[in-house]
Amino acid sequence: MKVERAHHGHYKVLLEAQKELVDYKGLGISVLEMSHRTTDFTKILNTAENLLRELLNIPENYKVIFLQGGGSAQFSAVPLNLIGLKEGRHADYVVTGAWSAKAAKEAEKYANVNIVHPKLGAYTYIPDPNTWNLNPDASYVYYCANETVHGVEFDFVPDVKGAVLVCDMSSNFLSKPVDVSKFGVIFAGAQKNVGCAGVTVVIVREDLLGFALKECPIVLDYKTQAVNGSLYNTPPCYSIYIMGLVLEWIKNNGGAAAMDKLSVIKSQMIYDIIDKSNGFYVCPVEKKNRSRMNVPFRIGSVKGDEALEKKFLEKAVELNMISLKGHRSVGGIRASLYNAVTVEDVQKLAAFMRSFMQMHHS
Asked: Which letter, b or e, does each residue of 211-238 get, where b requires 16 or more Cβ atoms within 10 Å of its Cβ?
């Protein structure tokens, strides 16, 4: 969800980037023109890494690398780098939505994939971890922390009995504190909470480096990228620069713990309206698995009244609220409440939802 720019949490970041676009810190050139081999860019890269390490308390035995290809490239990179940890090429996947389903499908090219629970009829909940059928021979266990399309979020780190745990945190990265030491690999596309499209953060435990399959493309090889400090090939320089600015903004606004508090306040505001609407607004997700980042809902009934939803979206745009349309695969409405969305933004949406309901509730 986006509203008037002046209230937007990252508006200051955009202004800073605008100011430095043509002349970065008096150097007479833009970051867009800068060679990735210069000391000036090295400083930008180091700043981003150091801020990440500080904000997430990343232990020293973890490497932080900045890659291209988005989260989707990591759907391939994870098995290509980790499946060789054990013979047999087994991998466990928890599939709770569209993104973990895509990851599992991609992994099938390189691994014997075990979905640890029966296939879900609908992505509206997280199966009880006590029922998961983990394979002791699996090289790793994979899950997606927050499913943006279906609005399902883990509020716990699965206990995988000492196995290597891999997590796609693309959509809730730095929206709350995380104990990095519980994971073998964490990856996150920057564009939801920590920057713009183009850069993907990978945090990988050092003892997991060096096991890539021989057919792993070299730009996806964690060891190659870690040894070269993310500079094996030209990195997404400008996206890393923007991420550094956003990380600074997060730090100055109280860090991951503050983002978490705000995320709870913002999402609760919308869920409260849904739950008290007597079925006018319907969120299909089980309460304990509801996402703080993405609130999907239908209007009028569980299946949604398309005419009402169309009217809702049109009216929202008139009020400068955009990007509220649900993902094309599920339809309906979806309010995405990433770090940059302020409490004031959400209050505005909440007020609109109340007035729309009063107008149309029969």
From this structure: bbeeebeeebbbbbbbeebbbbeebbbb
